[in-house]
Amino acid sequence: MPGSSRTSVTTMVTVLIGIAGLIFILARAGAPIAGAEPAARGAVVEFTPDGKLKQPVGYRQWIYVGASVTPNDLNGGKALFPEFHAIYIDPESFADYKEAGKFRDGTVLVKELSSIGSKETTSGKGYFLGDFTGLAVSIKDSKRFKDEPGNWAYFSFGHKYPLEAEVSKSPTFACNKCHQDSAKQDWVFTQNYNVLRAAAPRSK
Amino acid sequence: MPGSSRTSVTTMVTVLIGIAGLIFILARAGAPIAGAEPAARGAVVEFTPDGKLKQPVGYRQWIYVGASVTPNDLNGGKALFPEFHAIYIDPESFADYKEAGKFRDGTVLVKELSSIGSKETTSGKGYFLGDFTGLAVSIKDSKRFKDEPGNWAYFSFGHKYPLEAEVSKSPTFACNKCHQDSAKQDWVFTQNYNVLRAAAPRSK
Fold first, then answer.
1. Mean pLDDT across B149-172
2. Residue of B21, B114, B195 with shortest CB distance to A25
3. Bridge-based pairing state of the strands A124-140 and A152-156
4. Strands (DSSP E) along chain B, which ranges?
5. Contact partners, residue B109, CB within 8 Å, separation at least 6
6. Contact in structure between B44 and B62 (CB atoms under 8 Å)
7. How many CB pairs under 8 A join A and B?
């Protein structure tokens, strides 16, 4: 009968929409949600099977916490970290820092180095960014770096392009010691990063 | 009959799942997707009814594009923009810039100023961030600022805290002219912002 046939078609269409809906629900269940950076949902950084750190990706879309400049011309022609430093923190650790005021286990900080491109522009004399030259990373991980002071390990991908693709952690005396001795908060130079200082709960 | 009853129940359950699926699809259609900052989905900045720009919020979680430093001590004690400058772009306009290599209508750039906190640390001599001191914003909007050269308007919330809560746009000669004359790309000093240069499609 035409009536019965229409009912069957309606039922079939509804069933198909139901199946489509289910597939959609299942597909979205694994997808990241708004406000969370995709990079921060999985592993923020990757290691090789033998424990080397792979060059991080996507960090220029992380949270910038501050910049410094140690120009070669103020450091006898050879700055320890030439010359601009821009520091980033992974977004989830920043969100946690805003709540807790400390660096959670798993925090990743990236220090990207750039040359000085110009020393005078229309806005005055000073130091202006040139090209990217170097990259370094520090990671706090109480399992992977349980033997490092503060559980912080440091990695340098070089101060000159092309950078290394993957690197072993630096010896403890090369980076960790100086951070332990001089950094204001938990091996991090928060005294130089006003974005972090302003984000900490005590400042709210 | 039991058989017919089971069929009816199965059909009804399937129909309900179908409706649930439809509701879910419709609900998610309007929701932001991963990777897009929630702040960038609505209005990135807000204006008062009489056209003043309200102080932007959340910009420290936008995309950092570069920093410069024009210290007072290199500018006769009074830098035009004292002293550290950190520049941010709103996330959606950055995503668009990566694809198109140009600044879309609606682009918002924030320049946050900080004092110099230190001139020497364990990493050498140079300039290190102090406290936040100032805030300025530029906006490209072909409707709201159709009479401004390049459709860019400039706003300064001050160079000393406390900043203004809302401000009128600066006169064209005060900011726009210099940007028009000296900025490398579309009123923006991309020559000083290596993050933007590296993100532009021609660099890929």
1. 98
2. B21
3. antiparallel
4. 53-54, 63-69, 84-89, 108-121, 124-140, 152-156, 166-167
5. B65, B87, B88, B89, B137, B138, B139, B188
6. no
7. 187
Per domain, the residue ranges of chain A are: 1-31, 53-199
Radius of gyration from C-alpha coordinates of chain B: 24
Model pLDDT for residues B39-49, shown as the tens digit of each residue: 445 689 999 99
What ipTM was assigned to the predicted interfaces of this complex?
0.79
Q: What is the mean pLDDT of chain A?
A: 86
Helices (H) and strands (E) in chain A, counts: 5, 7
> Distances from the Cα of A8 to the Cαs of A22, B11, B12, in angstroms?
21, 11, 13
Asked if A191 and B24 come within 8 Å (Cβ–Cβ), the reply is: no
Q: Do B77 and B85 contact (CB within 8 A), yes or no?
A: no
Q: CA of A50, closest CA in chain B: separation in Å? A: 30
From chain A, the residues in CB contact with B182 under 8 A are: 121-122
pLDDT digits (tens, 9 = 90+) for A49-95: 999 999 999 999 999 999 999 999 999 999 999 999 999 999 999 99
Distance CA B69, CA B195 (A): 16
How far apart are the CA of A59 and the nearest CA of chain B, in angstroms? 10
Q: Residue length, chain A? A: 204
- CB-based contacts of A186-192 (< 8 A; 24+ apart in sequence): A186/A102, A186/A103, A186/A140, A186/A150, A187/A138, A187/A140, A187/A149, A187/A150, A187/A152, A188/A103, A188/A109, A188/A138, A189/B121, A191/B117, A191/B118, A191/B128, A192/A66, A192/A68, A192/B117, A192/B118, A192/B121, A192/B128, A192/B129
- CATH architecture of the domain with residue range A53-199: 3-Layer(bba) Sandwich (3.50)
pLDDT confidence tier of residue A153, bands split at 50, 70 and 90: very high
Residues of B whose CB is below 8 A from A128 = 68, 191-192
